[in-house]
Amino acid sequence: DVPSGGFIVRTAGTGTTEADLREDARYLVRTWRDIRRSAERAKSPALVHRDLDLVQRILRDQVSDDFTAIRVDSEEEYLGIVEFVNRIQPNLVKRVKLYTREEPILEAYGVQAEIEKAIKPRVWLRSGGYLVINQTEALVAIDVNTGKFVGRGGSRLEDTITRTNLEAVEEIARQIRLRDLGGIIVLDLIDMEERRNRQRVMTTLQDALRDDKSPTKVLSFNDFGLVIMTRKRVKQSLERTLCSPCPYCQGSSLVKSPQTICYEILEEARRLSRSMNGDGIKQTMLRLNPEVARALQTTERDVMVEIEDYLGSIDVTSDPHVHQEQFDFAFL
To answer: What is the pLDDT of residue 44?
Structure first.
């Protein structure tokens, strides 16, 4: 069925079965024939082929015989999906279902809830332990904690830790795929004393990663008890796709404390006092964030006294629209 020419199989095809390669080849042949027919019928200039849209790319890259159903809530998309699946994997056409219930499809199948959980740093394990996933520019750090899980009955601490780590690495593999994490990933598992337990955890992790379509490489525990792995970064992670940096903290996840700002105000008061020498100032006003104003009136009252020693009596205006790290003086 293959016309003259050939196919390029890239490294991503490593480990692919012959049946899958044949199915892919058939799809490409059908696509090429469609292009030829369109070109023969069309009057130049004309579009003879359009690249796959998002839905089609997902179907091409993800759908396999393991899928029991493909559900879609748009009749227009449904017809397009049926046509496309009929081209790439005709045996799966009957699994395409049109969703017609009133409840939103993402809520009905719990997808929205999973998305919400997938952008939060903490992931709870069934045992009561939890993961903390932090993405940085350089790497992804995943920390494992026992949390509420303290073992059952007379379990040894080593056994409790091992069970938590075994559960954790399976969830880590799932979260890596779900969040589409890539690059260098460092796993900080709970320390285990026995070598055989560390080996069990490594084997479980490698088994859990086996179905991942993105190439991964896992190194054994190092001297610090860390497991370092790499995963090919194909696109931005789910968090970077769905979220943007916090406009308040500029993405740092931290702001200076009210106490710190109080001392910055004091330093500014000293500088202003030296530059103005008190000439012609009848009234001094200070506009700042309510949290900082509260600190100046309570825990940092001594700082406020020092500020007034430099600038005289000050009218403090608490403005919720002022950023916690900002303040300004006005003089009349």
So the answer is: 87
The pLDDT of residue 127: 86
DSSP 11: G
pTM score, whole prediction: 0.71
Distances (CA, A) of 83 to 50, 55, 70, 93, 274: 15, 12, 13, 8, 78
Tokens 């017809």 found at? 79
What is the pLDDT at residue 153? Answer: 53
State the DSSP H helix or E strand holding residue 143, giving kind and residue range, or none if neither. strand 140-145
Pull the structure tokens for residue 24.
Answer: 């892919």
Structure tokens at 73: 């809530």
Q: What is the pLDDT of residue 301?
A: 95
Question: Rounded to an integer, what distance in angstroms lies between the CA atom of residue 168 and that of residue 157?
Answer: 16
DSSP state letters, 281-302: ---EEEEE-HHHHHHHHTTTHH
Residues 6+ apart with CB under 8 A from 242: 115, 119
Q: Which two tokens stand for residue 65?
A: 């015989």
Domains of the chain, start order: 11-89 (no CATH), 112-242 (3.40.630), 258-331 (3.40.1260.20)
How far is 153 from 46, CA to CA, in rounded Å? Answer: 74
Q: Name the nearest CA neighbour of 1 among 26, 33, 18, 31.
A: 26
Q: Which residues in the chain come in under a pLDDT of 50?
A: none
Distance, in Å, from the CA atom of 285 to the CA atom of 65, rounded to the nearest integer, reads 71
* Largest pairwise CA distance in the chain: 94
Compute how many other C-beta atoms are within 10 angstroms of the C-beta atom of residue 263.
14
In which element (H, E) is residue 230 found? strand 226-231
**DSSP E strand boundaries for 13-105:** 70-72, 96-98
Phi and psi at residue 304, to the nearest 5°: -60, -40
Q: pLDDT at position 2, please? A: 61
